[in-house]
Write a structure and sequence with these properties.
5 helices; globular; 43% helix
Length: 127
């Protein structure tokens, strides 16, 4: 699978609050909290349910990736989606280990694996 997704009975807003704290504990910051459902509604293209996308970054990991390959910026910052589906809140992300394989450099796998495990812990703590 290319993604990591979990389900929660909490509201989108509650998950976002909890996720922000869990990300801090894992040395990640939230660079941007994009309310996709609100933006689409304002453009006359409303979707059902709430949908937020967080762009998150760990500066040390980002520097390490970019120091090896500037093309690594295609995958930065990391994205975590929080949205309503089937009366539950979904929390998910594309796996960094899957994305980094698009750059043919095995030395970056360890960085991606570390980032992935830390983001998964933060997601799990927020549900």
């Amino acid at each position: 699978m290319f993604d990591y997704t979990v389900q929660s009975n909490r509201t989108v807003e509650d998950v976002i609050d909890r996720l922000g704290e869990a990300l801090k504990d894992e040395a990640f910051g939230v660079l941007w909290d994009f309310d996709l459902s609100d933006t689409l509604e304002k453009k006359g293209q409303a979707i059902e349910g709430k949908y937020r996308i967080l762009e998150v970054c760990n500066p040390k990991a980002a520097k390490e990736v970019l120091s090896h390959h500037l093309e690594g910026g295609y995958f930065l910052p990391c994205k975590i989606a929080v949205f309503e589906k089937d009366n539950h809140t979904q929390i998910g992300m594309p796996k960094p280990t899957t994305l980094i394989r698009l750059i043919d450099d095995e030395s970056l796998q360890a960085v991606a694996a570390d980032v992935e495990s830390r983001l998964q812990r933060a997601i799990d703590q927020s549900k």
